[in-house]
Write a structure and sequence with these properties.
single chain, alpha+beta, Heat Shock Protein 90, Ribosomal Protein S5, domain 2, 22 helices, 25 strands, about 40% helix, binds ligand TSJ
Length: about 650
C-alpha cells in the first residue's frame, strides 16, 4: 500500500503539469484544443479496429457537453501492472507514458495506442468515467477534477460483450469554450471511416437529436468519388492497395475537367500529413514518370518537351494512405505534419509508377485523353509565362492603370511582410487608409457585393472590374496560372462589417480564392479580420477617457470590471462607426487585432459546402438549407436585428 500511494502522488504531478501548460499537449485551449481531446480518445478505438478488433465506433455528445466514445474492441487491459501494482487501466489514464508501454505488439497505430492522449484528456476533464467489457467481466473506474482517482477499479458484474466505453467532460476552467461542434466531429469521423473501410462510425447528438452514420465498403475510392461528386470527371477512380517492405500503401485518384486545382490528401497511420513528406514526393515522381513514359513510348509528345509535374497534376484528386510500422516512422517539421521516412518515397514512387503505367496501357482511350489534357495545361503554362514577360517589358500596362485607381499600395517591397486589406465599402476603405501602417499595409476597398464567381468561366471573371483588380493587385496570376510564390502579399485580409452582408462578402471572396487561388488558402495566406463587438469606456471628471474593447461576452464582463463603476458600452455595428484611430487599434494593428486564418480542415466538407451553397443547383441548396438550418434560430436572429 505504501508503494501504491507514493507512485500515485508521482502520477498526479504529471497530470498537474498538463493542467499548467495544456497548450503544450493539445496545441491550444480554444475550440481546436477542445476537439483535440475527442480525437485523442477516438484514435484509440480506431487503432483497435485497425488491428482487427471491433467494427463499430459510436460517439455521443450529451446535453451537458460531456462526450462518450464506445468501441467493440478487446477492452483496455485491467490487470495489475507488476512494477507499480496498479491496474494497467489506471496507469494508462494517469501517466504521461510513452506509447507502447502497455502493449508489446509492434502493430501499426496512429498516435500509438495509449499514447499520452488518454491521460491528457483525463487531466483536462472534470470527470472521466471508463467502463470496460472484457474477459466476461464489466470493469469500472472513475476520475474527477483533472484526473484524481474517484472510484478505484471495480467489477460491476458479468458480461459476454467486449469493448471500451469512455465518457469525459472537458473542464471549463481550462477551455475558452466547452461547446462541441457537431459538424467538426462529423467531418472527423467521416474522414476516419474513409480511411478505415468496413468500420461503422456512428455520431449521436443528444442536444438536438442529430445523427449520422459513416460506413464505406471501398474506403479511399469512395472518398475520391465524394470529393469529385460535383465535377466533370475524366474516367473512373483508379485505386490500389499493396504492401511492400512492411509499408501498406493505399491510393485512389481521379482526374476532372474544368478544375485547375490539384487536391492531394495524404495520411500516415490514419493521421493527416498536412505538410506532405516523402510519400507525397514519391507519388509525384512516380505519376509524372508514368505519364511521361507512356506519352513518349506511344509517340504522343511529337517532339515537344516533356510534361512537367504540375501539368500532370492539374485537375487531379488523389488520396494517399500509408501504414508503417512504428520502427520506421519519422515525422519532421515543427508540427510533425511531414513524413520523413525515406523508404516511403521509393515504395510509393515505384508502386504508383508500375500500377498507373499498367492502367494507362490497359485503358488506351483514357490515356490519350489524359495526355492531351496535360499538354493543354503545358501550353497554357508556357503562354502565361510569355505573356508575363511581355507585360514586364511594356511600361504602363492596362492593368497598372486599373491598379492605381483603387489600391492604396504599401511602401515596402518585402512582399512576404506586406498585407492587403480587402475592405467592405469606400467609406470603411477611407478609414482604413488613414489607420493603416503605410509601410506594410495596402488597402483595396470594394464597392458593393462582389460577383459569385463559382459557376463563371475565367473569361467572365476577368471581365469583372472588382476581381480583375484583386487579381492584378495580388500579382501572382489566376486559375491554372496562379503561382503563390509570386504573391505581393504575405497576408490577404478580408475586412467587413460583423453583419450578414459582411459575412456574405466574405463567402463570395473566399469562393473566388478557393476556386482560383487555392494555394493562397492552403499555404495559410488568407485571413478574415474580426472587429470588436463592443467598446467599454468611461470619461472622468477631468474629461479623460479610458476604454477597452470586447470581442465576445467574456471580454465584455472583464472589460466592465476593468473600467469599473460608471462604465458605458457602445456596440459596434460596422467598421464605419469607428474612427481611423479605433480601427487601427482594434482591427489592423498586429499588436491587438484578432485575425481568423482560413484553413481547409476537411477537403470534402469544403468542396460540398462551396458546391451546394455557391453553385448553380438551387434545388440542392434549398434541400441543404432545409436540413441544416434551424429556421427558429434564424427568426430569432432576424428579431434581434430589427430591434
Ligand atoms: F484512450 C483510451 F484509453 F481512453 C481509450 C482506449 C478510449 C477508448 C474509447 C477505447 C480505448 C481502447 C483500447 N479500445 N480498445 C483498446 N484496446 C486495448 O487497450 C488493448 C486491448 C488488448 C490488448 C492485448 O494485448 O491483449 C492490448 C491493448 C492495447
Amino acid at each position: 500500500m505504501e508503494n501504491y500511494s507514493a507512485s500515485n502522488i508521482e502520477l498526479l504531478s504529471g497530470l498537474a503539469g498538463v493542467r499548467k501548460r495544456p497548450a503544450m499537449y493539445i496545441g491550444s485551449t480554444n475550440s481546436y484544443g477542445l476537439h483535440h481531446l475527442v480525437w485523442e480518445i477516438v484514435d484509440n478505438s480506431v487503432d483497435e479496429a485497425l488491428n482487427g478488433f471491433g467494427n463499430k465506433i459510436t460517439v455521443t455528445i450529451h446535453k451537458d457537453n460531456s462526450i462518450t466514445v464506445q468501441d467493440e474492441g478487446r477492452g483496455i487491459p485491467c490487470d495489475i501492472h507488476k512494477q507499480t501494482k496498479m491496474p494497467a487501466i489506471q496507469l494508462i489514464f494517469s501517466t504521461l507514458h510513452s506509447g507502447g508501454k502497455f502493449n508489446d505488439s509492434a502493430y501499426k497505430s496512429s498516435a500509438g495506442l495509449h499514447g499520452v492522449g488518454s491521460s491528457v484528456t483525463n487531466a483536462l476533464s472534470v470527470f472521466c468515467d471508463i467502463t470496460v467489457y472484457k474477459d466476461g467481466k464489466i470493469y469500472h473506474i472513475r476520475f474527477e477534477n483533472g484526473g484524481n482517482l474517484k472510484v478505484p477499479l471495480e467489477v460491476l458484474g458479468n458480461t459476454t460483450k467486449h469493448g471500451t466505453v469512455v465518457t469525459f467532460k472537458p473542464d471549463s476552467t481550462i477551455f475558452s469554450t466547452t461547446e462541441f461542434n457537431y459538424d467538426r466531429i462529423a467531418d472527423h469521423l467521416r474522414e476516419s471511416a474513409f480511411l478505415l473501410k468496413k468500420v461503422r462510425f456512428i455520431l449521436n447528438d443528444e442536444r438536438n437529436g442529430n445523427k449520422d452514420e459513416f460506413y464505406y465498403e471501398n474506403g479511399l475510392k469512395e472518398y475520391v468519388e465524394e470529393i469529385n461528386q460535383n465535377k466533370t470527371k475524366m474516367g473512373d477512380v483508379f485505386d490500389f492497395e499493396e504492401t511492400v517492405s512492411e509499408i501498406d500503401c493505399e491510393i485512389a485518384l481521379q482526374y476532372c475537367y474544368n478544375d485547375y486545382n490539384e487536391t492531394i490528401r495524404s495520411y500516415v497511420n490514419n493521421v493527416h500529413t498536412k505538410d506532405g513528406g516523402t510519400h507525397e514526393v514519391g507519388f509525384k515522381i512516380g505519376i509524372t514518370k508514368a505519364v511521361n513514359d507512356y506519352a513518349e513510348n506511344n509517340n504522343l509528345l511529337r517532339g515537344k518537351s516533356k510534361l512537367e509535374g504540375s501539368d500532370i497534376r492539374e485537375g487531379l484528386t488523389a488520396v494517399i494512405s500509408l501504414r508503417l510500422p512504428e520502427s520506421i516512422l519519422e515525422f519532421e517539421g515543427q508540427t510533425k505534419g511531414k513524413l520523413g521516412t525515406q523508404q516511403a518515397q521509393t515504395v510509393v514512387s515505384n508502386l504508383i509508377y508500375t500500377k498507373f503505367s499498367y492502367y494507362l496501357a490497359e485503358n488506351k482511350e483514357f490515356a490519350v485523353r489524359l495526355i492531351k489534357k496535360c499538354q493543354d495545361s503545358m501550353n497554357a503554362r508556357i503562354a502565361a509565362r510569355k505573356a508575363k514577360e511581355e507585360a514586364r517589358t511594356k511600361k504602363k500596362s492596362k492593368e497598372q492603370i486599373i491598379l492605381s485607381d483603387k489600391l492604396t499600395p504599401a511602401q515596402s517591397k518585402e512582399y512576404d511582410k506586406n498585407e492587403l486589406f480587402i475592405v467592405e465599402g469606400d467609406s470603411a476603405g477611407g478609414t482604413a487608409k488613414k489607420g493603416r501602417n503605410p509601410k506594410y499595409q495596402a488597402i483595396l476597398p470594394l464597392r458593393g457585393k462582389p460577383l459569385n464567381t463559382d459557376s463563371l468561366t475565367m473569361e467572365k471573371i476577368l471581365q469583372n472590374q472588382e476581381f480583375a483588380t484583386i487579381i492584378n493587385t495580388i500579382g501572382a496570376g489566376v486559375g491554372q496560372n496562379f503561382d503563390v510564390s509570386e504573391s505581393h502579399y504575405g497576408k490577404i485580409i478580408i475586412m467587413t462589417d460583423a453583419d450578414t452582408d459582411g459575412a456574405h462578402i466574405q463567402t463570395l471572396l473566399l469562393t473566388f480564392f478557393y476556386n482560383n487561388m487555392r494555394s493562397l488558402i492552403t499555404e495559410g495566406h488568407v485571413y478574415v479580420a474580426v472587429p470588436p463587438l463592443y467598446r467599454i469606456y468611461k470619461t472622468d471628471s477631468k474629461g479623460k477617457t479610458t476604454e477597452v474593447y470586447a470581442w465576445n461576452d467574456t471580454d465584455l464582463e472583464e472589460g466592465k470590471k476593468k473600467i469599473g463603476a460608471g462604465y458605458k458600452i457602445s456596440r459596434y455595428k460596422g467598421l464605419g462607426e469607428m474612427s481611423d484611430k479605433q480601427l487601427k487599434e482594434t482591427t489592423m494593428d498586429p499588436k491587438n487585432r484578432l485575425l481568423v486564418q482560413i484553413k481547409i480542415d476537411d477537403p470534402l466538407s469544403v468542396e460540398n459546402k462551396v458546391a451546394i451553397l455557391m453553385g448553380k443547383d438551387s434545388d440542392k441548396r434549398k434541400k441543404w438549407l432545409e436540413q441544416n438550418v434551424d429556421f427558429n434560430e434564424v427568426d430569432k436572429f432576424i428579431e434581434e436585428v430589427k430591434h
